[in-house]
């Protein structure tokens, strides 16, 4: 029986105005869930509900909120296999990857359950006697969180867990094509004992979401916006929030470079490029965009990389495969445009386009899904769209360099700044690359993909506005610093004016 799911506001099912069928991209004839989509009014109403619930939730002691986060982690852990299987069914992510994604929620909860006892402020010495200075972290209020579907449960947890831990209420708008996974995750969070209205989930399309968010910002019911998605939409979110003097948390796209130095372990570099370029079918914000390989080892690297891609297993994500299908037909339509950027001066290694019976990929294990060949394009140049723009899907470009400074310049040229990687055995190369690259994340002898729950995650330039998720750094997204001074002298002491002055003899010489 097809799942029927709708938005949940204040603990109650919300009305729907249209429906959307979330299908299995590995077998597009299978409907995973029939999703009732809400309108802008429902989104705005959810923000009002969250505002009312947030007041009491903020009064709950932070260590108690931490115990709720601990319960969420244990609930997710106990349901890990079921949630991962649903992720695989709905977005086509290989099951092993889906299990890792679910584990990321548990890791995030494990980190933040203790932060309820560590929302530290500071006691600061005053410049005047009989006066004390303090700082405190306060919750921002209501966070509106809008997430993509390529990581339908892990990435949302990077927002939801710290936001709730800090005493905020949340209105979460997941991607429609990953609605069943999101609804399952909402149910796990709700089972932890969260008060009704503290976490709300609203399913809506982009237009209705934007209109609802605009209304909520005008009404003052949203104090923080978190958005994971494309750079194009991120700009619009940033402009909207800027009109209300708010700074959103933006985690956007990437054109992530991998530099391969002459001293690199080529087999390791090929393994990293294969996973970074084609894991999740190249549909990660941290997916490899361009391999920038030294000209002296270009031929050797390309030969090994092409062979690895040819041997990689593509197919049913329930099995042991490198990659499954694309997330949804709309991404396939967009990917067709990307492969249209391949030009005459490029050398294509392997096949391009949709995998079919007449155009198979090795021992293809899928049937009836949105499967595309993993594609490597050699000879890309800094003028090519394939080099300059994000290509969300299984396509990786290759270019060459002569000096490390040239490689760093090429790595920064597209203007994104999310993730990057360098393969080298020389620590001088690694640190020089770290200093020069604009990316918010740098890997040495590792792929561009992969994040740990206690490190800051986020990008610069076209990849974001410098905000960071994960670890203690995300606390600055969901709290506001408050300064307090307490004068117990019994008289008015004016800062910078009534300060004792000890006069030195600056003319003294030995």
From TrEMBL:
GO terms for molecular function: aldehyde dehydrogenase (NAD+) activity. Belongs to the aldehyde dehydrogenase family. PANTHER family: ALPHA-AMINOADIPIC SEMIALDEHYDE DEHYDROGENASE (PTHR43521:SF1). It comes from the Bacteria. Keywords: NAD, Oxidoreductase. It holds the Pfam family Aldedh. Its EC number is 1.2.1.3. The keyword Oxidoreductase applies. The active site is at residue 251. This is aldehyde dehydrogenase (NAD(+)). InterPro entries: Ald_DH/histidinol_DH, Ald_DH_C, Ald_DH_CS_GLU, Ald_DH_N, Aldehyde_DH_dom, ALDH7A1-like. Homotetramer. It comes from Nonomuraea dietziae.
């Amino acid at each position: 029986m097809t799942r029927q799911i709708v938005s949940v506001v204040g603990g109650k099912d919300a009305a729907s105005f249209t429906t959307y069928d979330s299908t299995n991209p590995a077998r597009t004839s299978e409907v995973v869930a029939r999703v009732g989509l809400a309108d802008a009014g429902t989104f705005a109403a959810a923000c009002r509900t969250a505002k009312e619930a947030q007041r009491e939730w903020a009064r709950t002691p932070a260590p108690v909120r931490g115990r709720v986060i601990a319960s969420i982690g244990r609930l997710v852990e106990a349901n890990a296999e079921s949630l991962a299987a649903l992720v695989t069914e709905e977005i086509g992510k290989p099951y092993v990857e889906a299990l890792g994604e679910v584990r990321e929620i548990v890791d995030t909860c494990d980190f933040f359950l203790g932060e309820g006892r560590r929302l530290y402020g500071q006691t600061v010495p005053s410049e005047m006697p009989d006066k004390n200075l303090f700082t405190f972290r306060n919750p921002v209020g209501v966070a509106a969180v809008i997430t993509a579907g390529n990581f339908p449960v892990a990435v949302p947890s990077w927002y939801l867990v710290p936001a709730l831990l800090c005493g905020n209420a949340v209105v979460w708008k997941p991607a429609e094509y990953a609605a069943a996974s999101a609804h399952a995750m909402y149910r796990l969070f709700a089972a932890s004992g969260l008060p009704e209205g503290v976490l709300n989930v609203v399913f809506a399309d982009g237009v209705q979401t934007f209109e609802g968010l605009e209304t909520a910002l005008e009404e003052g019911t949203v104090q923080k916006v978190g958005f994971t998605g494309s750079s194009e939409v991120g700009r619009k979110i940033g402009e909207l929030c800027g009109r209300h003097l708010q700074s959103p948390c933006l985690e956007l796209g990437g054109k992530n470079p991998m530099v391969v130095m002459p001293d690199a372990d080529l087999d390791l570099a090929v393994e990293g490029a294969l996973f970074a370029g084609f894991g999740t079918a190249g549909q990660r914000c941290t997916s490899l965009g361009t391999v920038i390989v030294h000209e002296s080892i270009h031929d050797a690297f390309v030969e090994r990389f092409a062979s690895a891609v040819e041997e990689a297993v593509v197919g049913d994500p329930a099995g042991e495969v490198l990659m499954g299908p694309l997330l949804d037909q709309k991404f396939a339509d967009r990917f067709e445009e990307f492969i249209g950027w391949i030009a005459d001066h490029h050398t294509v290694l392997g096949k391009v386009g949709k995998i079919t019976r007449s155009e198979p990929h090795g021992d293809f294990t899928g049937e009836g899904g949105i499967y595309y060949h993993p594609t490597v394009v050699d000879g890309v140049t800094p003028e090519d769209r394939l080099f300059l723009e994000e290509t969300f899907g299984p396509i990786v470009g290759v270019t060459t360099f002569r000096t490390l400074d040239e490689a760093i310049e090429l790595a920064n040229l597209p203007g994104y700044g999310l993730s990057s990687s360098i393969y080298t055995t020389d620590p001088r190369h690694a640190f020089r690359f770290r200093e020069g690259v604009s990316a918010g994340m740098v890997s040495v002898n590792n792929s561009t993909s992969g994040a740990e729950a206690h490190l800051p995650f986020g990008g610069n330039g076209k990849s974001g506005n410098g905000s960071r998720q994960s670890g203690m750094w995300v606390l600055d997204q969901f709290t506001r610093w408050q300064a307090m001074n307490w004068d117990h002298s019994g008289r008015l002491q004016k800062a910078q004016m009534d300060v004792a002055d000890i006069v030195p003899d600056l003319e003294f010489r030995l």
